[in-house]
């Protein structure tokens, strides 16, 4: 069996297992504990003459409005102080992972399935970060994308594309997420659910204003700047939480329940538990995905150690950003050698 074949089979087994586990722990436990039923109870049919703060006319299409109501109710439960700090930490830490999917979509010779990150990121909004990105990294690893440079493919993301992605991330993630957390308005929360579409639209509009044909040089400095800034922000946030809370509070904030919570638990505890499992599987799959950045057993071993200890000390989002930076730097060196 060739190494490439072994790598593909390993990716299939690891990430398909993570997908199944994430569906069970994120969605299955929430359903078994009665959390979803309690959220649905806040969304009665308007035909019954009942109103709630979240059963609003978001689109005018009944089944979409009904679905949005449950999602909005869940997020507004998460705005409680018991949950909001972890929610903010989760959203900030996930930014480099989401951005990497958009960056990869502009890398030359990428597989067709990775060319449209909006599909995965929008699915994430409906099916969870953990389940969706387990599938994303399975496709990424099995497609050979991580081995593009060794296979002799061009890997440079040009400046126009890198800048357009960052503009899209700023408008779709930073601005919309800021409005989500600060305003805590049901209509803003519903709009935030399509932030991946907003990112794509903003990226497209930026490319209209600054077309790729006019800025064909390497986007390496732009991408590196983003990953460095992400590492600094996320690691600082993570370290401040580690040093500012006692151990019991840290466990409560970061560790989900292995068993479904009792139905008598507060909605806030249910919401926190769902978000915790979503983070566990989303970041686990993303950090495991970085193992396919490696070229040999030594690099795999180093990444495993870095992912484990770095996640504890600096946070998984910071670890991912640093690893993505390392990979981007190596690709840049390899591209430079090709041109010499």
From TrEMBL:
Membrane is among the record's keywords: yes
Transmembrane spans: 57-79, 86-103, 123-143, 164-184, 190-208, 220-241, 274-293, 305-326
Keywords in alphabetical order: Membrane, Transmembrane, Transmembrane helix
Keyword Transmembrane helix listed: yes
Protein name as catalogued: Uncharacterized protein
Organism whose genome encodes this protein: Collybiopsis confluens
